[in-house]
Amino acid sequence: MARSTDSKENNKAALEGARICVLGSGPTATEVLKNLVLGGIASFTVVDDVRVGPRDLGNNFMLEASSVGQSRAAAATALLQELNDAVAGSFVDEAPDALLAANPRFLAEFSLVIATQMMEAQMMRLDVACRELGVPLLCVRAYGLVGYLRASLPEHCVVEAKPDNTIEDLRLHRPWPELTAFSRCFDLAAVDDVTHRHVPWAVLLIQALSAWHDAHMGRLPATAEEKTQFRTLLQSWQRSAAGVPMQEENFDEALAHVRKVFAPPTIPAEVAALMRDECATALTPGSDIFWVLVAALRGFVEGEGGGDLPLEGSIPDMTATTEAFLALQRLYRERAEADAAAVEARAAALLKRLGRDPGQLQRAAVRLFAKNARNLHVVRWRRLGEARGAAQGDVLRGALASEDTGANAGLLLLLRAVDRFHAAHGRFPGTYDGGLEEDVSLLRARLAPLLTEVGAPGSAVADDLVGEVVRFGACELHCVAAVMGAAAAQEAIKLLTRQFVPLGGTLVYNAMASTSSVFPL
């Protein structure tokens, strides 16, 4: 419980200490900030030089009619602060591009930069600047009925992934000596009926596997026939009255969990890949402590763990007496503590070898790492420029050809095309009083080379989709901004707290079809 409390406090502190810079002050920007301010960040700074106009009042709830003509960044900041007076808010009444050109290190003081409504070239320049400063970047955009979201940073290490489906490692296939001794304390043939139906199911399976090993030279049940025989062995231990099996829930539970014996948990492929990663196998004095712990984990698996990861330490509910359950729970916790201590000792030795102070290891953090060893994740992002290169053609070409993702992949390319349209014409398609058909042709002309880059035919993006994007007129609809603001805030919290696994690619939200796709770009 202490470890869990420490973890929650650390994550809360990470969020409460976060300093957020948001570039832009439109509805997407204020929707992101609304969620983060309510979540309890430390402070935020809005950078924008736009004045509030009548159109802003129709799509931004963080502006009032009295704000028309004033700095939009200032007006939005004032109302956002009213949501949570514990959060400090400030603004810079300057265009983001101009500010960063004059003061490239302006972003260095922030925990996270969130860029809203930026075009392709702007995002690429910002990505370079943020990577040089070591500041995570999150790009979010609402363009008509399309949303775009992508993070960009070299690497993000996650210890608390909190997966929806977890694997229980009770080490039933290979119990350690203390667990074996505990299971032998229950003499199933000698105990009374009440005790018999309160023997924990984990103990029943350990005893059954021990009996199986004795008869099968230490092998696990492998074939379908052997698995049936194992179940029959377990059922034969149930008691009966007048030839009728007694109701014993612990045996029902054991039979329901018997697969844990047949298929003991293995090391997940992603964790195995991390232990082989060059960052773990070739440590340097500057290595992140996460990679030092991964290297220590590899040593543990090869040594004390005997091929297994550290024990997580918790056990599920099971029919048992309070005394038996608590005793079993204590055994698992003690083993988990011992495994974590072994990982810590290995990590300390590695730090010492690197010329670093082993004292920088926090015991609670190491315990948390060992407890979550089965769910470790590392997410790496390409630079935004690399994600737009021809090398990624296979991904988009395949997505365009798929019925499920074709439209959304087309929208991603169209977002790039509208930016190229703007670079050529000084405006977005559909934003002048002339006919839309001319802009449809012009946008299709900007899309064509993008399709060629990814090796897709010109017909891969339907004319209707091109026409819809022109009809958007580059508007920033509040309904789309609200969805993208919520998604961006969620990703921001993942990055800040290092809990849950952030999106490793580009999210495209299609409000026309109520669908979304994540592309590994």
Automatic annotation (TrEMBL):
Name the pathway: Protein modification; protein neddylation
Question: Which InterPro entries does its entry note?
Answer: APP-BP1, ThiF/MoeB/HesA, ThiF_NAD_FAD-bd, Ubiquitin-activating_enz
One GO cellular component, as annotated: cytoplasm
Concerning Gene3D superfamilies, the annotation shows:
NAD(P)-binding Rossmann-like Domain (3.40.50.720)
- Identify the residues that the record assigns to the THIF-type NAD/FAD binding fold domain, covering every copy: 9-512
Key words of the record:
Ubl conjugation pathway
GO annotation, biological process = protein neddylation
* Gene Ontology terms for molecular function: NEDD8 activating enzyme activity
Cross-referenced PANTHER family: NEDD8-ACTIVATING ENZYME E1 REGULATORY SUBUNIT (PTHR10953:SF29), UBIQUITIN-ACTIVATING ENZYME E1 (PTHR10953)
Function, as annotated? Regulatory subunit of the dimeric E1 enzyme. E1 activates RUB1/NEDD8 by first adenylating its C-terminal glycine residue with ATP, thereafter linking this residue to the side chain of the catalytic cysteine, yielding a RUB1-ECR1 thioester and free AMP. E1 finally transfers RUB1 to the catalytic cysteine of RCE1.
Q: Which family is it part of?
A: Belongs to the ubiquitin-activating E1 family. ULA1 subfamily.
What is this protein called in UniProt? NEDD8-activating enzyme E1 regulatory subunit
Which classification does the entry list for the species?
Answer: Eukaryota, Viridiplantae, Chlorophyta, core chlorophytes, Trebouxiophyceae
